Amino acid sequence: MTRLNRTHAPELRSWVHGANGADSDFPIQNLPYAVFRRRGSDEAWRGGVAIGAQIVDLDALLRSGVIRSAESAALKLAAQSTLNAFMAAGTCAWSQLRLQLSDLLAENAPNQREVAGCLVDQAQAEFRVPAQIGDYTDFYTSIHHATTVGRQFRPDNPLLPNYQWIPIGYHGRASSVIVSGQDFRRPCGQTMPQGCDVPQFGPSRRLDYELELGAFVGPGNALGDAIGIDEAESQLFGLCLLNDWSARDLQGWEYQPLGPFLSKSFATTISPWIVSMEALAPFRVPFERPAGDPQPLAYLDSAFNRRLGAIDIELSVVIESAAMRTAGVPAAPLSRSNYRHAYWTLAQMLTHHSVNGCGLQPGDLMGTGTLSGPEPGSAGSLLELSQAGKAPITLAGGEQRSFLQDGDRVILRGWCERAGATRIGFGEASAQVLPARVL
Ligand code: CA
């Protein structure tokens, strides 16, 4: 999975117009997957792969016969209306199709005319959640987020004692995972404002975003079995951007003793594109613990995880308010972070999740938790940036924000770059807050 091959070669270029620019998220070294159709059509949903500003329509590619039927098993799975069967097929199938697509899209490839006939402009496409997600689990793997948020509630004891030993998580709600571009209503619920002794019911007044990555599970494990840390990497299909919208006032009242419930289950936005673990191979970095911190228990430790368990993914959040849209002001930056700061790796999350025999299934989604970095400007939520509303931030254009207002659009972006490799990106995860439904 993490071995480099000819699909990663930085000198590789595509014949597809616009795929070779230095700023493109989708050069030939990336080849992420989505499920799409032409916008406004009643075409069947099918798998697609991004190249430049185009999509390779995998169903059209299958029907074109460019890949001979004896070699098209992986393509057949990836062309379906959800990616679950392809995710279940495992690393050999994933690598086979990546190599086939890379060879077809590379400069000087044969069959360019046939493959060009399978391209759809991304601007003309609509997307949906690319897998039938059976279960969504959200983790809490940024120690910077956990410490900053913990300090707001427990100034003397911000980090709970289990944090450095267990990848903390909770079971989320799969039915409210939505794809980028789908707007959602501000949730209503119970809150207990300070100084009150009876809760109030109404629209959340402390709506927030959370900058996260999502990981899609591959083949998974049978109930009662466990995935060992050495197998965990081959169980990971790929990553997307994930915004775990959070109603902080609902959360503050409901979360004890069982954790978040309605404060999280109204919307979780993911990017349409899933970047494969193989595409991320050039950007793996060591998993490291600060000096003096406990080392993971043996079942969460491996030589590979120490050497290359983390991933260097640069992340950004920008906001566009209704006023900014009206005035034509570009979206304003909120924060910048990087996934390499996470306290637990994807392999550790997945291993811990299944160690009790919990079955993971193809297409299950795991959120990393809010990916705040060590600097104040790298906080992945408004709760942190505005110090729970005590220090509102000023946006470019002069508006202030403690929490999100109706009409605000939040856009997450992610990309990987380093010397000696071609930059790849995740596209974006974007959604707008609509006014609460009046009950
Ligand atoms: Ca979260």
Give an account of the 3D structure:
With 439 residues, the protein is α+β, with helices and mostly antiparallel strands. It has two domains: 6-128, Fumarylacetoacetase, N-terminal domain (SH3 type barrels); 136-434, Fumarylacetoacetase-like, C-terminal domain (Fumarylacetoacetate hydrolase, domain 2, Alpha-Beta Complex), CATH 3.90.850. 20% of the residues lie in helices and 25% in strands. The chain contains twelve helices and 26 strands. It has helices spanning 58-64, 73-78, 84-89, 91-105, 112-116, 143-153, 229-232, 248-254, 303-308, 322-327, 346-354, 382-385, and strands spanning 33-38, 46-51, 54-57, 119-121, 125-128, 136-139, 169-171, 177-179, 184-185, 188-191, 200-203, 207-208, 211-217, 236-243, 246-247, 268-270, 275-276, 284-285, 310-311, 314-320, 332-338, 365-367, 393-394, 400-401, 409-416, 424-434. The site of calcium ion has 7 residues, from loops.
Q: What's the oligomerization state? A: single chain
What helical percentage do the residues reach? 10-25%
Please report the distance between the alpha carbons of the first and last residues. 51 Å
Strand content: 25-35%
Topology:
Layout: E1 33-38, E2 46-51, E3 54-57, H1 58-64, H2 73-78, H3 84-89, H4 91-105, H5 112-116, E4 119-121, E5 125-128, E6 136-139, H6 143-153, E7 169-171, E8 177-179, E9 184-185, E10 188-191, E11 200-203, E12 207-208, E13 211-217, H7 229-232, E14 236-243, E15 246-247, H8 248-254, E16 268-270, E17 275-276, E18 284-285, H9 303-308, E19 310-311, E20 314-320, H10 322-327, E21 332-338, H11 346-354, E22 365-367, H12 382-385, E23 393-394, E24 400-401, E25 409-416, E26 424-434
Parallel strand pairs: 6-22, 8-16, 9-26
Antiparallel strand pairs: 1-2, 1-5, 2-3, 3-4, 6-7, 10-11, 12-15, 13-14, 13-22, 14-16, 14-17, 18-19, 20-21, 20-25, 23-24, 25-26
The chain binds calcium ion (CA).
